[in-house]
Amino acid sequence: MDSKQIAGEKAVExxxxxxxxxLGTGSTVYWTIVALAELVKKGLDIKGVPTSKSxxxxxxxxxxxxxxxxxVNHLDLTIDGADEVNPKFELIKGGGGALLREKMxxxxxQRLLIVIDESKYVRHLGAFPLPVEIVPFGWEMxxxxxxxxxxxxxxxxxxxxxxITDNGNYILDCxxxxxxxxxxxxxxxxxxxxxxxxxxxxxxxxxxxxxxRSGNVxxxxx
Length: 222
Prior knowledge:
The chain is of the alpha/beta class. The protein has 2 domains: 141 residues, Rossmann fold; 68 residues, Alpha-Beta Plaits (2-Layer Sandwich). It has 6 helices and 15 strands. Helix 1 packs across helix 2 and helix 2 runs parallel beside helix 3.
């Protein structure tokens, strides 16, 4: 069985009747959503809050009841993926382009559970380019300011045009190679005018569910 599928399906064991659940975005949490839909068919009573239009469409197609983020004050649990996770439970997210909504949902969750395969578990963040969501207006200026932090920002493209997020923004993929202080960089980036949000998730994750090639799942708790 695929290591992403193993991790994604294991995560549903943390979902209980009556929960409000944040539904993440990506290839690993896809398996969580599929497994959750099966439980819903069997009577599990939950409501989901999607972190992207793609997740919303998937959950609706599979019959998971959804509610709008604006209608809730907190979530019991959010299950999401990550592009990199270090031993301090600091994350890089946003490879799929949903980082802003993912961070909004995670910020009101009592517990953030991250599902990954073992290739995403790294000693230092930064080999994966850090996604930074920016407003299209004057984006070149924003990119120049970000580059002064020691990275090489590249405007994400899709079919020869700028990639557009669900919120109508652009994404810069920023190559830092090695991020020394994720906490500090998270704050510094978000102080730059034109930056909407960045893919560093610091002091947010509580549990990591990691699938490996041998077919086992490792659970890491903060």
